């Protein structure tokens, strides 16, 4: 008997959509790690694809799995991106960034013909608003941006790692914003993007085409 977690089951459902010859965007986080691992098995068995990574950590995991990695900067379009999320809802709105990779994840997602979120049932909501919204901040702009976020009632908390500020793959800071509620995610996303010094945020409102979510071993597919 093989027991698979819901994250792994969701990842396998997305893997079924990968075709030979595709350029595949590899997400970041523990759910995406199952996808990368199983994709690596297929590649080692002769399945030919090329992949771009949404973080340095994913790039390392993918290379160790034997997946050919190409540099995203040389591409304009990716065929299929598979990534996790911190929270998703029935509108296919997502909050991403707990893994700190949402700046590259959003670029790769936006460049993809299809973007699939894989998640276990704990990530599903009727409307996003529970998970904090990560924001990537240019260090030069730290206190200015924090003040602007407080004016939006975003309650920003700078991410700490090993008693120092956490830094993204780009060398920027990340603040987690604990909005009391997100009644209008589109307006909130626009307000965040309008603050100079914010280079990215975790509100993904247009990028997700399909969600494969698994709960108790049962996979549900939701399409935009
Ligand atoms: O940081 C990210 O965007 C990750 O995709 C995150 O949202 C999901 O991570 P998990 O699969 O480990 O829950």
Short structural description:
The protein is built from six helices and 16 strands. The chain has about 220 residues and is α/β, with parallel strands linked by helices.
Structural account:
This protein is 28% helix and 29% strand. The chain contains six helices and 16 strands. It has a six-stranded mixed sheet with strand order 2-1-3-6-15-16, with helices on both faces. The longest helix has 15 residues, at 30-44. The structure holds D-4-phosphoerythronic acid (DER).
SSE blueprint:
Blueprint: H1 6-15, E1 23-26, H2 30-44, E2 50-53, H3 56-64, E3 78-83, E4 87-89, E5 94-95, H4 102-110, E6 112-120, E7 124-125, E8 133-137, H5 142-151, E9 156-158, E10 160-161, E11 164-165, E12 173-177, H6 185-193, E13 198-201, E14 203-204, E15 210-215, E16 218-223
Helix pairs in contact: 1-2
D-4-phosphoerythronic acid binds next to helix 2 and helix 4.
The oligomerization state is single chain
**In sequence order, what are the helices and strands, one letter per element?**
HEHEHEEEHEEEHEEEEHEEEE
Number of strands: 16
Mean pLDDT: 98
Poorly predicted ranges (pLDDT <50, ≥5 residues)? none
How is the largest sheet built, in terms of strand order?
2-1-3-6-15-16
Question: What count of helical segments does DSSP give?
Answer: 6
Strand content: 25-35%
Major sheet: 6 strands, mixed
**Structural class category:** alpha/beta
- Distinct small molecules bound, one entry per kind: D-4-phosphoerythronic acid
What is the end-to-end distance?
A: 35 Å
């Amino acid at each position: 008997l093989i027991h698979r977690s819901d994250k792994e089951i969701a990842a396998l459902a997305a893997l079924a959509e990968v075709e030979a010859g595709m350029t595949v965007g590899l997400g970041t986080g523990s759910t995406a790690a199952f996808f990368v691992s199983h994709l690596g098995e297929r590649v080692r068995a002769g399945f030919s694809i090329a992949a771009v990574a949404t973080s340095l950590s994913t790039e390392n995991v993918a290379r160790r799995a034997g997946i050919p990695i190409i540099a995203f900067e040389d591409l304009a379009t990716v065929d299929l991106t598979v990534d996790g999320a911190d929270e998703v809802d029935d509108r296919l709105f997502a909050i991403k960034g707990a893994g700190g990779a949402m700046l590259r994840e959003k670029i790769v997602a936006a460049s993809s013909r299809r973007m699939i979120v894989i998640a276990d049932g704990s990530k599903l909501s009727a409307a996003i608003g529970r998970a904090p919204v990560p924001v990537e901040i240019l260090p030069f702009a730290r206190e200015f941006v924090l003040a602007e976020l407080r004016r939006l009632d975003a309650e920003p908390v700078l991410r700490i790692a090993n008693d120092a500020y956490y830094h993204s793959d780009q060398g920027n800071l990340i603040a987690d914003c604990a909005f009391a509620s997100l009644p209008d995610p589109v307006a909130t996303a626009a307000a965040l993007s309008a603050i100079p010094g914010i280079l990215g945020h975790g509100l993904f409102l247009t990028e997700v085409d399909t969600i494969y979510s698994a709960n108790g071993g049962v996979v549900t597919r939701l399409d935009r």
